[in-house]
Amino acid sequence: MSTLLQNNPLLYFSGLPKFNEVRAEHVTPAIDFLLQEARATIEQLATAQEPITWDNFAAKLEDMEEKLSRAWSQVGHLNAVVNNPELREAYNDNLSKLTDFYADLGQDERLYAKFRSLRASPAFASLTVAQKKIVENELRDFRLGGAELPEAQKVRFKEIQEALSKLSSKFEENVLDNTNDYALYIEDSARLAGIPDDVLQAAAEAAKEDNTAGWKFTLHFPSYLPVLQYAHDRDLRETLYRAYATRASEFGKPEWDNTPLIAEILKLRQEASQLLGFANYAELSVATKMAESAAQVEQFLQDLATKAKPYALKDKIELEEYAAKLGISDMQAWDVAYASEKLREEKYAFSDLEVKQYFPETKVLAGLFKVVETIFDIHVTKSQAPVWHEDASFYDIKDPKGTLIGQFYLDLYARNHKRGGAWMDEAITRRKTGSQLTTPVAYLTCNFSAPVGDKPALFTHDEVLTMFHEFGHGLHHMLTQVDDYSVSGIKGVEWDAVELPSQFMENFCWEWDVLRHMTAHVDTGEQLPRSLFDKMVAAKNFQAGMQTVRQIEFSLFDIRLHSVFDPAGSQSALDLIETIRDEVAVVRPPKWNRFPNNFTHIFSGGYAAGYYSYKWAEVLSADAYSMFEEEDGGVLSSATGKRYWQEILAQGGSRSALESFMAFRGRVPSIDALLRHNGMGAK
């Protein structure tokens, strides 16, 4: 083994990743070595003559997949949080190799035949529930991977997979590069009236770092959103809104324009689906989800729109009337957040800025940990591990006896060269091999405002909700009790159910007995006043109708884009979203808004024909949480928490999400709790 391999941190599998050592030059040697090793394993298994068993066949494929996945997860994570040209080049070069490898694997008729043989053998009956589910999933995935296609079509299917992989990566890079590239420098302090002091201080420090006078504003959310919410200067709001809404479009650098990528991605997805015998990509997508068909998804969204739109129209009329009082007679998209914040302040006598002062980072994290410690009887403590940036930290989760259950990295602040948004991803997945148990490890990543000056980071209540949301995903990954890799944690969970544990956790952020313990005013240390909390609860469903139809708009756009839309036709993606807005939207963005061009969720984030999952899973999460609400012990009931852990979190993907939900709730899901939580149903 060469020196580059002997000392390669990406090939270290005996403990936590060595993020302090990983460099771009490590990526190619490590991935080449692992792919060579994987192909040798596949060849050995495919040609073996011995009778097929779980241990001599499926378990060995799991070994191979785990090593390759663990190394690549580190590369993908670093590319997302500390992106640089060298790492990006290494990532893209090796992404092509991995796409090629997995396309070949998915079409390997020899392995497919062996899984069919294992399924038909008497030994199948003695497998665990999780192992049986893995075999069934593998048979399905071989079919969806093109294993049953004629040879010529296999070649074309593989070409499509490779092309889509490159296009999706490029789509996300264009959005990131455009976001990072934009800067607006303001020297006239009069234009900044209304913007919170901590945001201005951060903007001044950013300008100083660039050796520029005044204040620097960017399209990163902690800089962008406060301007839209608070800046009195309407032109300033419009300037930033226009820059944000036209990212990666024909209005910017030609090399960053995602318009041609959208058309090509849709065309290739359609072709791949038809090769596999599906009418369109939406039908292919739902083949692995809870939903039974694209038509069922469409009906679900239409039914929800019918219930929500009257509330949305009421919200819009109220907002327009209030905007007129502010002197805005022709309310535009860049006025909505500003007028909404002012209306909420007047209607409920508080502002986001006021609430934010009570949520310093340390108290929020302590409060979050207290919730999960109470309902699951676990302990979260800060620990040590090599990290990729000084902002990142590391934690252990242990049971009452001190046994390690899981671990996670936390990277909370927005910065340049870090992908926007918030997400959880897998670093290491739980798996038992013999007597050896691998502890699961998660990445939890957000883009909140960093500390300014000598004060701690302060979070808005929306950011607190985001923190709980991502931790819910993390718990799904870390609290699994499944011992088999491919259905452990979130693996194997239907995509439209994977948001259940994350959205479930958000509910605790509206409970007084939870929230009061995670607040301390940044200056006085005083707890959040009950009177302010009551105002927050009263405002909880402020504009819930408008927010719901906005999510439905995105979901309908996604599902129709991948079902009825013809990528080769005369209608563009922009035309499609305009027709959907005719149906469900109540607030219309300007014609130059290029939302599809930066809709990374569906073009590079795994949510293609699956964006409806947020609303679908919200039905499940609200209904699951309602069981906590019904308990005599209250929402922090450890008895209900134990059952939730056992029936939903612990099961991972070892059985269908519907089975897990019904085992916990005792019945099929009901939409009633969702409507009630959103102020659109019976109290």
Structural features:
683 residues; alpha+beta; Glutathione S-transferase Yfyf (Class Pi), Chain A, domain 2; Collagenase (Catalytic Domain); five-stranded mixed sheet; two-stranded antiparallel sheet; 27 helices; 9 strands; 56% helix; 7% strand
Q: Which secondary structure elements does this structure contain, and how are they paired or packed?
A:
Elements (H helix, E strand, L loop, with lengths): L2 H4 L17 H24 L6 H28 L3 H22 L2 H12 L8 H16 L6 H31 L2 E3 L10 H13 L5 E3 L3 H10 L3 H12 L13 H17 L5 H6 L7 H32 L7 H16 L3 H5 L4 H16 L2 E5 L9 E6 L5 E10 L9 E6 L2 E3 L2 E3 L2 E8 L12 H18 L21 H7 L5 H4 L14 H9 L5 H18 L11 H12 L15 H4 L9 H18 L7 H12 L7 H9 L6 H6 L6
Helix pairs in contact: 2-3, 2-4, 4-7, 5-6, 7-11, 9-14, 13-14, 13-21, 17-18, 18-24, 21-22, 25-26
Overview of the molecule:
A five-stranded mixed β-sheet has the order 3-4-5-9-6, with helices on both faces. A hairpin with a 5-residue loop joins β4 and β5 (404-413). 56% of the residues lie in helices and 7% in strands. The chain has 683 residues and is of the alpha+beta class. Among the domains are: 3-148, Up-down Bundle (Glutathione S-transferase Yfyf (Class Pi), Chain A, domain 2), CATH 1.20.1050.40; 182-246, no CATH class; 351-493, Collagenase (Catalytic Domain), CATH 3.40.390.10. The chain has 27 helices and nine strands. α5 packs antiparallel against α6 (129-144), α13 packs antiparallel against α21 and α21 packs antiparallel against α22.
